[in-house]
Task: inverse folding
């Protein structure tokens, strides 16, 4: 099932140890591993933490993990879809995993949703995604994903992994990233910030004046010093400051826009 779910399982032991060390450091209290599969990374995480929770969708793989760790009270196997699992139910945790490529962004978003319960997150992802997560302003990889994660976390791209380290081998390079929560997010209202950044990057090559035309009154846009810039030219702190100014002026609502009612025929 792993391949159908977009998973490519890492089997190279030295790399598994490096990922576990990046996640746990000297010692971690609780670790949640997403998509452990056959348990390669699990075996490297287990000696480094006090409690290990494995969230596995595949019932065959979950049964194998349950049998392997039946006598270890530190390991709990949860069979189910991680996107439907409340990761906060166990309390503060490090989140770690080799993420299925096609649901990487939703899983990252879910981990960040833990807020103060997230110790850190260490993920194995496609190289392209890792570069987008870590990109800074002015880079061609910098965009909505970069800003929406960096507003809350320090992002480190730790090391690359080539396809031949996986079974089956993917068609692209992979990379390990570590997300470490900031002491305080760079924007007080994260949901509003992400809505704002989504609007700013709506069409990446267009200026803020064009992208915000449907969200901000024209007279306010015309007065903005940044109006002629593209969103990719502004760092996260600058985007957060811009949103704060617009919100204070009542020019950008911090609440979601209600859906339009269908027109009567």
Result:
């Amino acid at each position: 099932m792993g391949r159908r779910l977009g998973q490519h399982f890492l089997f190279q032991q030295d790399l598994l140890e490096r990922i576990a060390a990046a996640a746990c450091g000297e010692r971690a209290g609780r670790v949640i591993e997403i998509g452990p599969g056959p348990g390669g990374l699990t075996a490297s995480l287990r000696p480094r933490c006090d409690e290990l929770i494995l969230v596995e969708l595949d019932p065959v793989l979950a049964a194998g993990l349950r049998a392997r760790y039946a006598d270890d009270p530190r390991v709990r196997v949860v069979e189910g879809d991680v996107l439907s699992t409340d990761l906060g139910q166990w309390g503060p945790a490090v989140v770690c995993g080799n993420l299925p490529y096609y649901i990487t962004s939703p899983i990252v978003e879910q981990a960040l949703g833990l807020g103060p319960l997230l110790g850190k997150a260490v993920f194995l992802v496609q190289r392209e995604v890792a570069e987008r997560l870590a990109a800074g302003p002015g880079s061609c990889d910098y965009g909505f994903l970069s800003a929406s994660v960096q507003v809350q976390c320090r992002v480190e791209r730790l090391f690359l992994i080539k396809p031949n380290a996986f079974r089956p081998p993917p068609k692209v390079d992979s990379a390990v990233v570590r997300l470490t929560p900031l002491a305080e997010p760079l924007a007080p209202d994260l949901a509003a910030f992400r809505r704002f950044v989504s609007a700013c990057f709506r069409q990446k090559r267009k200026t803020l004046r064009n992208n915000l035309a449907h969200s901000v009154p024209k007279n306010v846009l015309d007065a903005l010093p940044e109006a002629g810039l593209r969103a990719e030219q502004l760092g996260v702190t600058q985007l957060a400051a811009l949103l704060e100014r617009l919100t204070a002026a009542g020019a950008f609502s911090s609440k979601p826009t209600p859906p339009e009612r269908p027109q009567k025929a």
Summary: Residues 257-265 have pLDDT under 50 and may be disordered. DSSP finds ten helices and nine strands in the chain.
